[in-house]
Amino acid sequence: MLIYIARMKHFICIAAISSLALPAAAQTKLNFRLKHELDSLYEVDQRYRAMLFDPRINRNPDSLATALGVPKSELNAAIMRQMQRTDLINLARVEVILQRYGYPGKSLVGEPTNQAAWSVIQHAPRVISHYLPLMQRAAEKGELPFTRYATMLDRQLRTEGKEQLYGTQAVNFNNQPPFIWPIQNPTQVNQRRKQAGFSTTVEENAVLLGVTYQLLTLEEVAKMNKQ
Predict the structure, then answer these.
(1) Boundary-marking domain end, from 144, 173, 206
(2) Which of 67, 172, 196, 226 lies at 20 to 30 Å from 205 by C-alpha?
(3) What is the pLDDT of residue 105?
(4) What is the pLDDT of residues 159-197, one digit of tens each?
């Protein structure tokens, strides 16, 4: 299964604008306490994924094993356990935040912190369908990059065994080479990607994911899964 690893730089947001300096429509009132909490949640969300997939970090497994206090032979399993544990903790907190504030978008916590709650939900497939409408509203209002909503929508469609819309999801079956999950109306996918704000075509995105792009149908994928 494809796991997306986002590497986001945190910006220092300065909000020292008086009501006389800008018109009311241009003023921003960030919740810095919430921003700090979401930044921390995102850091934890990415920590163990980076250990698994970021070559800058996992190129020294001996040091990682020592840091986690496990034998080298058990390193990956230990990282997975820690990742699953922190995912559950993060999800519980983010759900409280979503219930209290709605989606914490850029007008509330700034950028790129507005993507932190999305990342936690994206890593919790069992709740994606519940929060997808919330993500959609946030994206349509500009509170969340629309590409994030599009990626989450594709993941949910794939989970439901349906064709994805934007070609963001790659999978593999039974140790076969990974492939881009079937796409609805594939001849129009690059137009949809452009409208959603993606900077790459589906073919270019496949290269970035290390996947050879090919058009597949759901029927063909079903046969692959049985092999």
Answers:
(1) 144
(2) 226
(3) 98
(4) 999 999 999 999 988 778 899 999 999 999 999 999 999
Are 134 and 164 contained in the same domain? Answer: no
In this prediction the pTM is 0.84
Residues 136 and 207 placed together within one structural domain of the fold: no
DSSP 8-state secondary structure symbol assigned to residue 172: -
**Contact yes or no for 58/52 (Cβ under 8 A):** yes
∠ at Cα 79 (94, 43), nearest 5°? Answer: 40
Residue 224's nearest CA partner among 172, 186, 161 is 172
Q: Is residue 1 part of a domain?
A: no
Sign of the dihedral defined by the CA atoms of residues 86, 88, 93, 99, in that order: positive
**Model pLDDT for residues 80-112, shown as the tens digit of each residue:** 999 999 999 999 999 999 999 999 999 999 999
* Among 116, 144, 172, residue at a domain's last position: 144
Let me know whether 72 and 110 are in one domain: yes
